[in-house]
Structures are given as C-alpha cells and as structure tokens.
Design a protein that fits this description.
The protein is α/β, with parallel strands linked by helices and 346 residues long. The protein is built from 15 helices and 12 strands.
C-alpha cells in the first residue's frame, strides 16, 4: 500500500534520487510544477475539463464516476509509463486527491514502491511563497552591471561552470530583461520563477557570497522579491566595461536576429518613438535589409547606453568596482579576482 509523505520527506527522498511524478494535466504541469518532476497525466486537458464541468453541473459523485471510467481505460498505458522509470516514485496532483491516490495505488500494485505527496502541489506552492516571504539570506551579493551587450549572463554561466555560487535570474525567468529580451525564448511565469529561485537560494544560503546580475524589479513576466532587490542594492557592484565591438558581437550571438527578424522589428516598434527620428529610421532600415551589426551599434549608442550611464552613480564608491576588459574571457578572470579581493571577498 502506498504511503502519504510530507514535503520535508519528499525533499529528503529527492536527494536520494527518487522520481517525482506529476499526474496533473499537461497544461497544469506547464503552468507550474515541482522543478524536477516529470509529467505522466491521469487526465489530459480535455478530460480534466469534462470532469470539472460535470462536477459543477451534476455534483461530485457523477464527476467521480466519470473520472474512474476515463482512468480505467488509461491504466495499462499509465502503469507501463511508470514501470519504465526505475526505482522509488512520489506522485502528486493539485491537492493530494483522487488523481494522485489512483496513480499511487496503481504504481504500488504494479510492484514499485510509491508514495503520494500529502496536500499535493498546493502544499508545495504554499511552501515556496512562505519561504520567499520569510527568507533571511545571508551571503554578500556581487552584482554584475554594465552596458547592454557585455555578456553578463555568459560571464555568470562560465563562473557557475567553475563552481562559483551564481544565481542566474534571467535564466530562471527565461527572459533577458529588455524590450528584446524574450526573442527566441518562452518566458516563465511567476510561479515557475519562484520555484526555481527558492531552491537556488536554499542551495547557496551558507555561501560566503553569491554572484548575481544587476536587474530591475521586473524581468519579463516575473517580479523579484523585495528582499532580493534590497540585497542586490546593498551588494558590491561590479561594473564591467567592454569595447563596443565586443558588445555588438555578443548581442548578435545571443539574439540571432537573422533567425528572428520579425520579432526584432516588432520589439523595435515599441521603442522607436524614444529615439531621434533620423536615427530610428536608419535602425529600422538596417533591420529590414539585414544589416544587423549596424542596427545593434546604433541602438547601443543612441538608446541603451544613454539610458544606463546614470546607474553607476547610484552606489557608494566603496561598494563599486570598475572592471575594464578587452573581451568576455578577460572579464571572467577579473570578476573572479574581485570576489577574492581582501577588501571585498572571503
């Protein structure tokens, strides 16, 4: 017989390699999930809508009967998918109800150890919100700042690959934090972002420092928690300067405008009125005819750089480090040196 387990027990089992199975519908799983879970739905989206409508119109018993009828046809396929996953499993639905009970029972009857998350995804979501609202995050922040195109995300990725404590907000948001930020990406919603963020914060809560990118309150569709913004503003500010040629090269590499021309043009229309008319016209023509390097340089010189020049004055000099580099690789090494400086780091 399967066993109901708490969220704390789930976290312990997750460290030991248990497989977490989300049995909700595909749209529910896409909207928000426990980050490391896989989706094996008991109902697809259409079936879930049908049972839900029946519940409202004919009552819970009618909905339960129809739900059992649908599940009965799908059990062999469901069990087969679960059996293909070796080892212990934990299943969850929205609130630990019928769907996860049936799924856990079938997995258990098939001969594999199964558990059900008590309270379902709702319990997990409440934990995420409560944790973010009450977190006392101790590590010092080293905040990467600089003009558009210096490759802050790539620098953070390189540092993370070298086991530096890095929280990559743009990666979790699936957005680059600008008008053009979602080109080629599918931005995450707030619930997904919060789930990813809380586990990264817990992972590094005992680190002496954390590297993070300078971001505003909003990144695409998501908002940063207030305590994180405060920690960022109180942190050591690293201002990275690269030649404009390197920045243009990095932007072209990140955004691939030749593959996303229509998206680039659409995003440009949102800021066109903020740029001096002759320059705006030239940028638009360059985007249309594929002269992306020229368009990017003009955008940097006449839109992005003037908007960010004031930012360096927002922080006290004793918390500001200027890093001048010829390229991204040199910038990485200088950031590493800054983090271990006797004046600022460990």
């Amino acid at each position: 017989m399967f066993k109901d387990i708490s969220l704390e027990e789930l976290f312990t089992k997750q460290k030991n390699g248990v497989t977490v199975v989300d049995v909700r519908s595909p749209s529910e799983h896409k909207d928000a999930k426990i980050p490391w879970s896989i989706n094996i739905p008991v109902f697809d989206d259409r079936e879930r809508a049908e049972v839900g409508t029946l519940y409202k119109q004919a009552g819970p018993e009618a909905a339960k009967e129809r739900g059992i009828e649908i599940i009965s046809r799908k059990l062999p396929s469901f069990v087969k998918q679960c059996e293909a996953i070796k080892g212990e499993k934990v299943v969850y639905c929205w609130r630990g109800g019928m769907r996860s009970k049936i799924a856990a029972t079938m997995i258990d009857l098939a001969g594999t150890t199964a558990h059900r998350l008590s309270g379902g995804f709702r319990t997990y979501r409440n934990w995420v919100v409560d944790t973010l609202n009450n977190m006392d995050f101790k590590p010092t922040f080293y905040v990467l700042n600089g003009f558009t195109g210096i490759g802050k995300t790539k620098i953070l990725q390189q540092l993370k690959d070298e086991d530096y404590p890095v929280i990559d907000l743009e990666k979790m948001a699936q957005h680059r934090g600008s008008i053009f930020g979602q080109i080629g990406l599918e931005p995450n919603n707030q619930k997904t972002f919060d789930s990813l963020l809380v586990h990264e914060l817990i992972r590094y809560q005992d680190a002496p420092f954390v590297l993070i990118e300078g971001e505003s309150k909003r990144i695409g569709k998501v908002l940063l928690p207030d305590f994180l913004l405060q920690k960022k503003n109180e942190g050591i500010q690293l201002y990275i300067e690269l030649p404009i040629e390197e920045r243009v090269k990095q932007i072209l590499e990140d955004y691939s405008p030749d593959e996303h021309r229509e998206e680039c043009l659409s995003a440009f229309q949102r800021i066109k009125k903020r740029i001096h008319t002759p320059i705006a016209k030239e940028i638009e023509e360059d985007l249309l005819n594929g002269s992306f390097d020229v368009a990017v340089r003009l955008l940097l010189e006449y839109y992005y750089d003037p908007r960010y020049k004031h930012s360096i004055s927002q922080y006290a000099d004793e918390k500001t480090i200027i890093i001048k580099a010829r390229n991204k690789h040199e910038a990485v090494e200088k950031v590493k040196s800054a983090c271990h400086s006797p004046s600022f780091g460990e």
